[in-house]
Amino acid sequence: RSGGVAAPRRPDFKKLDADDVAFFRSVLSSPSSLITTIESPDGSWSAATSEDLIAYNLDWMDKYKGNSPIVLKPKTTGEVSKIIAYCYKKRIAVVPQGGNTGLVGGGVPVYDELVLNTEGMNQIRDFDDVSGILTTDAGCILEVLSNYLQPKGYMMPLDLGAKGSCHIGGNVSTNAGGLRLLRYGSLHGSVLGIEAVLPDEHGTVISVNMPGGGGAGALRKDNTGYDLKQLFIGAEGTLGVVTGVSILTPRLPSAVNVAVLSVPDFESVQTVFKEARAQLGEILSAFEFWDQEGLDLVLAHTGAKSPFESEPEGGRAFYVLIETSGSNKDHDDEKLGGLLEKLLEDGIIADGTLAQDETQALGLWSLRESLPEAAGKLGKVLKFDVSVPLSRYYELVEEARERFDKMGLVADGSIKTTVGYGHIGDSNLHINIVAKEYNEKTESAVEPWIYEAVAKRNGSISAEHGLGLMKANHVHYSKTEPAIALMQQIRRLFDPRGILNPGKYLPPVEHLPEEG
Ligand code: FAD
Predict the structure, then answer these.
(1) What is the tens place of the pLDDT at every residue in 42-70?
(2) Is this prediction's pTM over 0.90?
(3) Which of 109, 272, 311, 325 lies most in the core, judged by the most C-beta atoms within 10 Å?
(4) DSSP bridge pairs for 241
(5) Is the predicted ipTM greater than 0.90, yes or no?
(6) 178 lines ligand 1 (CB under 6 A)
């Protein structure tokens, strides 16, 4: 295996064999829902090659790689329940997996864990076009849900660059933030109900505020007891396998504007943000940022043309994307026009471009959305997703660059570039350090230095990507010891044998209960 520092494989986990495969085949409704390299003793199934399993064992960045011999793709909650009950009884370690677009090594095995992928669970269960509540299987792809809602005049409350592959169950499990959080809030607000399978001997299906699941259905208000569904949001597959989600979807705006502006320094980025909030008010729906290195990378790797007529003064600028969404185009145009005029008059923005139609708007958005992919094309990316107070946001990127320079990592090409971008509206900074390769030298130059630098600023070491394998042992930079201990107790309560995503999310507990 490679990537991240993992605890050794637990010796009490069962090594998967042909009997296990035979059981899983008996549970799954379709033979194509199972891929395994384990040979059949009597020829009743044909074994796959490890190549067939690579897409499930290797993460999006090519950084984390496990060695699972089996992938299951159940189609129903009932199938998931039987699989999980069996894994509990046999002590088989399981990795719940959605679209495998996670960026912290959480969705792929570390060793030989069974991969339980949700792509077969892709049915939309219900949509109420009065309340806007959508209820779906966990394996529905985010973009498929957006496309389903669009003709009905609704949209998903979240959007991210990985929308074409990530699953709604994965989004909920990572508490994905993304490009619309500024306006529509986090999934802790918009997810109304969760259905999940618990890692116990029955594979208990728990339904919290799901239509038809028993008890109160999907409601905005339900103050009866602990809000259990919140625990699954951002649990990264450590408490159960999410099989269904009810989510509140907002109306699709009828008027959208997108502008990209160039400003000379990071202080001006903050001024533009303050002004945009003051003048655009409720129609401000996104405020994104990237630096000169980010723009250069995207233009070089996508072949896109710069949206600006002139080169920035001194060769460097900072860029912001402002999106407005509303229901009255004239009103929104007037507000945005007023903002841009004021910023120009005050000499805050150096250059800018306003999309004239949807194609241009998509083009401007792609400058921002192509960034992670462009970085991946340049080399191996060490990705850090942190929250830091805006006043101290960009100094972290500058400190990183200075550090690598001093260490000679830039001169010898080990570090190719350091890019800063992110969701300014949420104080969420992405630092992408593009290296020649993943190796001990570059990784140790960055970690744990970067976590210490974030903690010094009272920031969070994970704004939205989660902990996974990458940050399981670093959570103390953002959470106190008593808080970590309580989280470990909660995890053990849900998953007494620790079969779900072992070695990830939190530092491992010392002793697992002796039972069983
Ligand atoms: P996976 O990668 O398959 O899994 C992620 C974690 O969730 C794992 O720990 C896994 O075990 C667990 N999990 C998955 N499904 C389930 C389930 N059904 N039940 C229980 N546990 C489950 N993230 C953001 O927050 N904001 C962004 O703007 C953003 N942009 C991105 C852009 C790109 C180009 C890429 C590649 C990634 C981006 N991400 C972003 C990260 C990633 O897309 C999100 O974390 C996404 O929510 C993961 O969904 P997934 O279905 O791919 O989950």
Answers:
(1) 999 999 999 999 999 999 999 999 999 99
(2) yes
(3) 109
(4) 197
(5) yes
(6) yes
